[in-house]
Amino acid sequence: MTGFHEAPNTYVGEVVIKVEDIKRSLAFYQEIIGLKVLEKSEKKATFTADGLNALLTIEQPEGVRPKERRTTGLYHFAILLPSRKDLGSFIQHLIQKNHSIQGASDHLVSEALYMADPDGNGIEVYSDRPSASWNWQDQEVAMTSEALDIQSILAESDGARWKGLPGGTLMGHIHLHVADLAKSEKFYTSGLGFDIVNRYGGQALFLSTGQYHHHIGLNTWNGVGAPMPGKNSVGLQHFTLVLPSEMEMEKIVEQLNNVGAEVSKDEGGVFTVDPSGNRIKLLVG
């Protein structure tokens, strides 16, 4: 499973989001999601699953505003558990906490739960089915949304006690609201080098490297031409893409320049912005 989230692939490493109340969000991400604090300051906290690698950072900016509706930005970030058994333990944990979810789906390639943090930032928690069982045809992988067999997943957990997210947990993918699917497709394929692996009607695209079912999802479900959220609105600050080498970094920067994308370099790293205003940090793993 983890081969899709390591070199020579490009994949999502860390997601950075804005929240209204840092204390409230700290409690949620530790007690409900099961992340551990890696670093913390008065208005910022970084979380990890393995004690070493950052998966999620939350920030409370000055003048923060509630999440704006019908804009581009974060649809959800997706936390990938190492096994179906771990997903069962997480479900049992949510039951014990009496915490509600927004949805649950069998996607053929994976099994997933959906929820939101206290500010409405979308979260998926999922486990993958073995990649050998994924059905590929003409370079596209079959995915759908069917009812999740929660009882079967719970049975597989065999009553294992929840101890927080296991060390092998990864940021599996990110799914974004965009304003224009065609412009976004060009940016992510010709600019960042991702392959389209599934088209969901005319409103969503799924992209990956290394034939993963998707590292990035894009949709226009908030409306074609949706505006960007305000600078201090709750939601996505940026996410990182981990590249396999410095040579790949040089190649990607050149490709981004060729498609007219914004690329900037400062002490924080190399950043680009997609056509819908979603900010991306590029780094070498």
Plain-language structure description:
- The strands form three sheets. This protein has a nine-stranded mixed β-sheet with strand order 11-6-7-8-5-12-15-14-13.
- The two termini are 18 Å apart.
- The chain contains five helices and 19 strands.
- The protein has a single domain, classed as Roll (2,3-Dihydroxybiphenyl 1,2-Dioxygenase, domain 1), CATH 3.10.180.10.
- The protein has 285 residues and is an alpha+beta fold.
> CATH homologous superfamily, by name?
2,3-Dihydroxybiphenyl 1,2-Dioxygenase, domain 1
Number of β-strand runs: 19
Termini separation: 18 Å
The number of domains is 1
Average pLDDT, rounded to a whole number, is 96
Instruction: Please identify, by name, the CATH architecture.
Output: Roll
CATH class: Alpha Beta
User: Which word captures the global form?
Assistant: globular
Largest sheet: 9 strands, mixed
Biggest sheet strand order reads: 11-6-7-8-5-12-15-14-13
Task: Indicate the structural class.
Answer: alpha+beta
What CATH calls the topology is 2,3-Dihydroxybiphenyl 1,2-Dioxygenase, domain 1
Q: Which percent range fits the helix content?
A: 10-25%
Runs in which pLDDT lies below 50 for 5 or more consecutive residues are none
Written as H for each helix and E for each strand, in order along the chain, the element string is EHEEEEHEEEEEEHEHEEEEHEEE
What is the C-alpha radius of gyration, as a whole number of Å? 18 Å
Question: What order do the helices and strands come in, and which of them pair?
Answer:
Layout lengths: L10 E8 L3 H10 L4 E6 L2 E5 L5 E6 L13 E9 L2 H14 L5 E4 L3 E7 L5 E7 L7 E2 L2 E2 L4 E2 L2 H8 L12 E8 L3 H11 L3 E6 L3 E5 L7 E4 L15 E9 L2 H13 L3 E5 L2 E5 L5 E6 L1
Parallel strand pairs: 1-4, 5-8, 12-15, 16-19
Antiparallel strand pairs: 1-16, 2-3, 3-4, 5-12, 6-7, 6-11, 7-8, 9-10, 13-14, 14-15, 17-18, 18-19
Helix pairs in contact: 2-3
